Automatic annotation (TrEMBL):
Example GO molecular function: acyltransferase activity, transferring groups other than amino-acyl groups
Pfam families associated with the record: Acyl_transf_3
Origin superkingdom: Bacteria
Family annotation (InterPro entries): Acyl_transf_3_dom, Nod_factor_acetyltransferase
Membrane-crossing residue ranges in chain numbering: 9-28, 34-54, 66-88, 114-131, 143-160, 208-230, 246-267, 273-294
Acyltransferase domain ranges (all copies): 6-291
Protein name per Swiss-Prot or TrEMBL: Acyltransferase 3 domain-containing protein
Keyword line: Membrane, Transmembrane, Transmembrane helix
Length: 315
């Protein structure tokens, strides 16, 4: 669990870049079908990876500390996102900003991509509570109990989406079953055949259907089959980005909002691809730049709980 898996970092890189790309409204609105297709698998795959990678072999104080340092950037950035959504002309606009509304967004119904951190924390705490204690219940029994916990959080308290929690649970099941990630998600270029067949039916372009779940599996399998053929420099870059996805998830909304100012300058390209390349580059570089500033100003211990968030790049 302490050793990074290059293929997993590569997958995380692909999915975080897709998340950023389709939060760029000017680009995503031009390709509604592609957006619907990508939304079928990119965050479900991220949740599977999250459940698989979460470490529960920690003492309660260590696990609590880990969660606190997800909570702090979440609270800061979600609060900022809500306030900006009340004053800027954005699609996900807030009307009538108030303390009650802010608390509702922070605790129950987060806005923007920060819903992922909210779900990650709630699902993670439940996972730790069910699986950490030593005792007689086996893996299957604990998975059932964890699924019931997620159903209660979703249906009774309505603080998570049940399908999203079940994708997290799927990652937990793979880990607790003792199966290597790349053994369960078998790399196969032939996954493209059923993937195209399923994607051709609009009814399957929904993460909350069996067809959508199959698309999630197949896209992971296909991407893993491509990985060995990538140039070493591409692998190194993907590994670096994939090992810093928290930075991109936390800071990318700042730059996807600011990228709207580029629209008049880049609207000459009707495809939106020039805008995508420029805005994506600015968002990635800007997010890493903010993390670098926090490191240099020695603020990372108060924001991330780490002396240094950005790790040296190694090829």
């Amino acid at each position: 669990m302490n050793k990074r898996v290059a293929e997993i970092d590569y997958l995380k890189c692909v999915f975080i870049l897709l998340m950023i790309a389709f939060h760029l409204v000017f680009f995503s609105d031009k390709y509604p079908w592609v957006k619907q297709w990508v939304y079928t698998f990119h965050m479900p795959a991220f949740l599977i990876l999250s459940g698989y990678l979460m470490r529960i072999e920690k003492r309660p104080d260590e696990f609590g500390r880990m969660m606190v340092w997800v909570l702090i950037p979440y609270l800061i950035m979600e609060a900022g996102y809500v306030v900006l959504s009340a004053v800027l002309p954005v699609r996900e606009k807030v009307d009538g900003l108030s303390v009650g509304l802010l608390l509702d967004k922070l605790c129950l119904h987060p806005m923007g991509p920060y819903w992922y951190l909210h779900t990650f924390m709630l699902c993670g705490v439940a996972y730790y509570g069910v699986f950490h204690p030593r005792g007689k219940p086996g893996v299957v029994s604990r998975l059932i109990v964890l699924g019931v916990c997620y159903a209660i959080l979703a249906e009774c308290f309505r603080v998570v989406s049940l399908p999203n929690a079940l994708y997290f649970l799927a990652g937990v099941a793979v880990r607790r079953g003792g199966v290597e990630f790349t053994s369960f998600f078998r790399p196969s270029f032939w996954a493209i055949v059923p993937l195209v067949w399923l994607s051709a039916d609009a009814a399957n372009l929904d993460r909350f259907t069996l067809g959508g779940a199959a698309i999630v599996y197949l896209i992971i399998s296909l991407l893993l089959s491509v990985y060995p053929a990538l140039p070493q420099k591409v692998k190194g870059g993907a590994s670096y980005v994939g090992s810093h996805t928290l930075i991109l998830l936390v800071f990318s909304p700042v730059f996807t909002m600011l990228s709207k100012a580029l629209v008049p300058l880049l609207a000459f390209d009707p495809s939106g691809l020039v805008f995508l390349m420029v805005a994506l580059g600015i968002t990635v570089c800007g997010s890493f730049g903010l993390a670098w500033c926090l490191d240099r100003l020695h603020l990372s211990p108060y924001f991330w709980g780490k002396e240094r968030m950005l790790q040296p790049f190694r090829t």
